[in-house]
Amino acid sequence: MDELKDIRSVFFLGIGGIGMSALAEYFFKRGVKVSGYDRVETPLTQQLAFKGVQISYEDKVQSEYNPDLIIYTPAIRSTSHLMQHFANSGIKMMKRSEVLGLISSSEKTIAIAGTHGKTTTTAMVSHILYYSGIEVTGFVGGIMSNYDSNYIDSGSEYIVAEADEFDRSFLTLTPAISAVLSMDADHLDIYGGSEEVTIGFKDFINKTKKGGTVYLHRSVIKNFTSNEWEVVQEKYKCLTFGDKDSDIFASNILPQKDGSVTFDLNYKTRLYTGLQLSMPGNHNVSNATVAMAIALEIGIPIEKVTVALAAFKGIKRRFEYVVQNKLNTYIDDYAHHPEELRNAIATAKDLFQGKEIYGIFQPHLFSRTRDFADGFARELDQLDYPILMEIYPARELPIENVNSQMILDRMTNPNKQIMSFKEILEFVNKNKPEVLMTLGAGDIDTIVPKIKIILS
Questions:
Q1: What is the C-alpha separation between 161 and 118, in angstroms, rounded?
Q2: Residue 191 has what pLDDT?
Q3: Domain boundary among 35, 69, 95
Q4: Same domain flag for 288 and 380
Q5: Sheet strand arrangement including 435-440
Q6: What pLDDT does 369 receive?
Q7: 166 and 65 housed in the same domain
Q8: Which of 44-58, 75-89, 166-180 has the lowest mean pLDDT?
Q9: I need a surface site. Which of 57, 120, 121, 304 has the fewest CB within 10 A?
Q10: Is the pLDDT of residue 107 over 90?
Q11: Which domain holds residue 409?
């Protein structure tokens, strides 16, 4: 943290990113002059600009750019004029993950990792602490509906950080409390194979401060040898969650008509009954048990924890109800991995039994489509009417013979189709699906307002 104490001005390359914008808020609130660049204007950049952050949408050097520190995201290409300028300027440059690592090293940090569920759980922990009057700074990889923000800050007694496995970013963190929700393979363009992904998560666990607490989903323990598991248990206070044989688990899970869920929390030897969560799905209930357990461990009374959880309104694009009226229900979800699709679709089928479920999916990244085509096909086949869009490339260049047709060819559903944005809007307008889902992490979110108008 000493490396940051004399910083008076910071420039962010890619300031509109979900992680970057939260970090920009952190520095701005602490009196540092913040400015930055991004390709396009978004609600996140608009919020920053409204507060007084100077943001440019042109990739060119301006005379007033003379910061003490450049913070950049790997999403910024090396061909960027600003990236090249600052790289040759002699000004200190750091990745976002490195800066977050410095912040976490000197604070009591709670870090949430996992291929799936980390955004939701990070948001839940941040919210419960904030709502309970604890001084907390929360860095969340999604927009929390309670705050219309990916960042909350009531002080720094605790830092709550989403620990992202992409680019091995989570290895910069040194948490006092860590959680691993899953170790499914992803980002194989970075890791190369599933074994390397597992090694990355194990390395993250070992970044926890000695004597700290580690929460592990029961499903990840199979990835440890008996000797490795003994070492982890000797080094840390380990608590498991996820099933009835765990230290922490949910029971008596009952979906409610309004889309919420009630459940009981089994926490070590104690049972807390009648808890409420606004987000449906057993996977979200499991996430909630971890968030509650962390809050209980740091000393928040169960009465405050349960009230805070009941007030949690969820995260935008995580099974978010966009339209809910007598004729139509429209749900938007960030699912971009086969396991996330499985959870989202299974939750919808459970909630809307007897109704046909239409789903529009936009694959994210050529490499992920190539690596998980079979899994995507298997999960999308569970929809009554699956519709695919073309791949959103994000940071990648095309890969030969990798496209959405690759998924479609592996599907057996007779109603499968590939459509463009325009064709989707025409299809929705014509069919007015009773239950519709948009799924994916690309720019599919830009179609959401248009579908909302059609179905409202």
A1: 9
A2: 75
A3: 95
A4: no
A5: 320-324, 329-333, 435-440, 357-362, 385-388, 417-418
A6: 95
A7: no
A8: 75-89
A9: 57
A10: no
A11: 320-455
Beta-carbon contacts of 433 under 8 Å, excluding residues fewer than 6 positions away, are: 328, 356, 358, 385, 455
- Greater confidence (306 vs 193) lies with 306
Alpha-carbon span 373 to 358, nearest angstrom: 20
Parallel, antiparallel, or unpaired: how do β-strands 320-324 and 329-333 relate?
antiparallel
SS (H, E, C) 105-141: HCCEEEEEECCCCHHHHHHHHHHHHHHCCCCEEEEEE
Gap between the Cα atoms of 320 and 447, Å rounded: 14
Tokens of 176: 């006092």
Same domain, 448 and 350: yes
C-alpha 241/C-alpha 291 separation (Å) is 11
Map residue 266 onto helix, strand or coil. strand
Can you tell me the distance from the alpha carbon of 284 to that of 226, in angstroms, rounded to the nearest whole number?
Answer: 30
Give the Cβ contact number of residue 293 at 10 Å: 22
Number of domains, the chain: 3
Same domain assignment for residues 146 and 279: yes
Tokens (6 digits) for 439: 């799924």
What distance lies between CA 389 and its chain's CA centroid? 22
Query: Do the Cβ atoms of 71 and 12 come closer than 8 Å?
Result: yes
| Alpha-carbon gap, residue 75 to 164, rounded angstroms | 14
63: DSSP letter: T
Q: Does residue 337 sit in the same domain as residue 429?
A: yes
Residue 144 has pLDDT above 90, yes or no: yes
Give the global pTM. 0.86
Question: With bands split at pLDDT 50, 70 and 90, how would you rate the model's confidence at 59?
Answer: confident
Q: What is the pLDDT of residue 75?
A: 77
Helix (H, G, I), strand (E, B) or coil at 341: helix
- For 125-181, give the DSSP string: HHHHHHHTT--EEEEEEEEETTTTEEEEES-SSEEEEE---GGGGGGG---SEEEE-
88 and 113, same domain (yes or no): no
Question: Does some domain include residue 100?
Answer: no
The predicted-structure confidence for 350-405, as pLDDT tens digits, reads as follows 889 889 999 999 999 999 999 999 999 999 999 999 999 999 998 788 999 999 99
In the block, which residue shows the tokens 């099933």? 243
Mean pLDDT of 334-343: 90
Between β-strands 92-95 and 158-162, what pairing exists: parallel, antiparallel or unpaired?
unpaired
